[in-house]
Structure formats: structure tokens, C-alpha cells
User: Fold this.
Amino acid sequence: MRRLRLALPVLMAVAVCGCIHVKIDESREVAGRISLSEGVVLLAKPELRGVGSESGFLDCIEKQLLGHTIAKVDESVRTVSIPGRHFRLVPHRAFIDSMYPWLEASTAPADAEFARVLLARPGVRERIKEAQVRYVVSIEGGTVVTDKSGSLACAAGPGGAGCIGLAFWKKTSDYQARIWDLQRGVSLGTLGTEAHGNSFIVGAILPLPFVAPVQHTACTRMAAELDHFLTGADLKLNGS
Assistant:
């Protein structure tokens, strides 16, 4: 208990600095608003270029966009109901399978010409029409741990086990999304979300971890911005 009391001031000081900071970037290139009959599919960069973006982040965004009310679910399409707005999410794996082999890592077009090259391939337009997909959101990025410092030692002996010390680190989640309009063959724009915060673990007999949820924070903010972007709420604010 004495060790815990000694550690509390340090723990509180670190906790004050442990808040999560978020930066949002948005760049719209072409005006566009989604309608009820149009579908959206989210694709992680591994599906486009074989480069690492955690699949869990994609799942998190989809869950956030789904909200709490799902009007209809079948094998190929999720019809999503959100108060005041409606749009459809097409499961990304079903879409990739339907587009085989054009979205495999070895054959997917580069970002700068994604829509134009994809739509020029034989049979692709027909497959997209069958899937009822108009918008593709390609997502890349990741979460990294940096600035590790401090030390934590744990040991076990005849009298029991325990840990002592303090270790902390910084976590940063940095993700970018590009929104493609397959009907017009253009990029509507990009969204960027960066979240960073301090995590730490205090050894006061028992290890006490305090982990900043930076990836979940980045997910929720990107999902909110993506919903805002697709429904054209930013255009309304700008008077477009």
C-alpha cells in the first residue's frame, strides 16, 4: 500500500498528459451526395495494394456506420438506417469476391487511377451494377507505438509476486481514406484522421495499465467524418 501511495502522484501527473489529441483533415474535390439506392463499400489497402492496414480498423468503421438500427441484412447487402439518413453498406469481402480477380493485390490499380483503370476492365461495370455499389472508400494507415521510456520490473518469490516501476509510451493512429465515385469515375476527395495519446503502466505490487484508446478514437472520428462527407452535410454547410 505504501508503494501505491507513492506511485499515485506520478500516476495522476501522467494521466493528465494522457488525453487523446485528434487531428482531422478533409479535402473535397468533387461535390456528391449519396442516396438510398446507392451502395458504399469499404476497402482496406491490403485489398488494393497489399500494404498493411489493420482489418480491425475497417470492421470498427463499418460498425460505427451501421449504428444501432439495421433495417435489413442479407448475404450481399446491408441496408443501414441512421436517424435522418439512409444508405447501404456492401460487405467488402463479398464485393471483392464478386470482382475477382480485379481487386487482388497483384492486379488492383494504383490509387491515382483506381476508378478509371478498374472501370476499363472487361465485365467490371456489369459486376459493379449487380453489387449496386457506387462509392468505394479505400482506407490505409496504421497504429504505431513510439517514445517508450521508464521501466517496470516484476518478480515472484516465496513471499508472493509483484511489480514495481513505471513505464509509458506514446501511441499514434494515422489513417487516410479516399472516396471514389464509380459512376462518374472520379475521386470525390480524401479524409485523414490522426489520433495520439500516452499510455502507461504502473507497478505498485499489481501492474496497473492505463492504455489510451487511440485507434478506437480515430475510428469513431473517421466514421463520423465519412458519414458527413457521403451525405453531403459539408456541402450544405458551405451552401453548395
Remarks:
- The CA atoms of residues 99 and 206 lie 52 Å apart.
- Helices lie at 2-16, 45-49, 55-66, 92-98, 114-119, 124-131, 214-230, 233-237.
- Confidence is low (pLDDT under 50) at residues 1-17, 48-52, 68-85.
